[in-house]
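Re: your question from the hallway

Yes, I did run it. Sequences:
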Amino acid sequence: MKYLDEYRDPEAAQSYITAIKKLTTKPWTIMEICGGQTHAIVRYGLQDMFPSEIMLVHGPGCPVCVTPIEKIDKALKIAALPNVIFCSFGDMLRVPGSDKDLLSVRAEGGDVRAVYSPIDAVKIAGENPDKEIVFFAVGFETTAPGNAMAAYQAKEMGLRNFSLLVSHVLVPPAMESILSNPECIVQGFLAAGHVCTVMGMDAYYPIAKKYEVPIVVTGFEPLDILQGIYMCIKQLEEGRYEVENQYARAVEEHGNTPAQELIEKVFQIIPSQWRGIGEISDSGWCLSDEYAEFDSEKRFNIEESIHKECANCISGEIMQGLKKPSQCPEFGKSCTPDNPIGAPMVSTEGACSAYFRYGRDAA
Amino acid sequence: MTKSDASSIVCPIPLSEYPHVMMAHGSGGRMMQRLIDEMFRVAFTDVQPNDSAILSIPQDKIAMTTDSFVVRPLFFPGGDIGTLAVNGTVNDLAMAGACPKYLSVSFILEEGLSMETIWQVVCSMNKAANAVDIKIVTGDTKVVERGHGDGLYINTAGIGALEHEYVIAPEQVRAGDAVILSGDIGRHGMAVMSSREGLSFEGDIKSDCAPLSPCVRDILDAGLKPHCLRDATRGGVAAVLGEIAIASKTQVDIKESFIPVEDTVRGACEILGFDPLHIANEGCFIVFLHPDEQDKALNIMRNYNPLASVVGTVSEGKSGLVTLETSIGGQRILDMPTGELLPRIC
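Structure:
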């Protein structure tokens, strides 16, 4: 199949593996930022193909995983309201809040719908003028243009019954947070290709320079990842720390400028909570003053409640690369994809779920 | 009334009377009788007049199964709830190595459903039953209030005759067995999903809904002795392999590059973040049998779908484990899907 098979060619993969082996003279630890990359690494069984000196750690780039529990609990309460149609990306429906998930709210009678695009939620709002339509606008820079477009269209259409429950987070501040931790073991990064498709590479130059760490903007197919790792190891072995672009077929230096302009109009930067990690300054977006009328949190007066995380869950350390999923006492025991305790077990992109599904017993 | 093909007949209930299902159609009175006499009996000519059908089967052993069908939408590319309701039960019988003989059909109709819809479904069922010579001998109709059903639910139960002596079941799977897949996967699930969600993909994806009993019959008639047959319905190939590995206490090792997937299905799965191995099929099955019989079985299966392939083998390995050699040459576990397939964020 065109545009897929050429990036999944076993012979090309093998020649990258050979080249990486030849290049590697000492142990290196590389973090892939994006959950989509983690998913590809485990889905294609890439991890066991590398020389043992290379350790891959899985970063915080799974939107399902880092959405704070407070926000999930708010979503659950709004979704249970009688006159609300609550729309969400599919894999948010199974993320556990303090005591349940959105699928349970649906089973209890809430009108909860999985949509493929935030624009679908705008359409539902247009078709249901007597209902309040809420879209759960989560994600990184990748989903931000679509979510911003939903708010923009709703305003243009004069929709009074549409709002967004926003939980948006940003990659570069999270990378800085990981790198400034004294226990940080990460020596090189595969940056998230699709985030850079939107935002470009500008934000990464100061990080590479300040922390003396190579950053390779990388795609999501097996050969993308192998090439990204090759480029990263090459920099590490040569003592360089630059920003390089493996994913040039999708990423331009300055990104998608119209998308950035729309984001800037609709959103503004705020400090943000990351589930399992805590607050990171300037790491999130909320709706700008111009679009504040579309903020679900303002529209529905939801009381804050006590949020309960599982005490043993180490998802925060996993998402910072400090621990592997298999080091968690709950992993594969009380916490499985059927009954997730921590968010990284929910999404197929979450590190714990990926480990459980594809590598539990090292095939 | 010939039973060759009821679809050539115009809907027998005059639309001017009751174009939609009324609660009275399920209340046991004259309206229900008309629905049965003028709709169901017209299509299902083998239905017996009494509460129970009296059947005769020369074989000592019979297979019996039942299944309920709640698919939405009722009509999807490549089939509808009627074809599914017949083929689903026919296939469950075939997977026991049984020859499908008799079928019961129960309809749960929602008030307001159009008679034209029922007629189309009934015609599909008639056609599907005739194709494998299974007789619809008894049935039931209930009506639920508007808003309490998805238009139409169907339950079918089937009886099949076992014409051989050996056991075909997961526990019979042995280390060394070949694993053969009868064709390309993922078409039914993606066809239903794309028509339900209004997704459009380049090129149409049509459900693979089809009866498997003719192919199974040929395998058995050729003197082959499959250890296990299983149709890869809900949960897809991954769920079936997992269940059989657990039941047979063996390890199943398969190779991703041997598994046929149509490009349209593959593309749709890529977009939504699904693994084709997790997607439901309705006309695809897996055969476990002795490796000496694999070529003969494959030749027979390719008469029905040229993409039938040997996809793996069974080993003693680790009980209940399914491994996958990925298309790129890596190794991973093939786990069963968790539950409802949910599209990924990005």
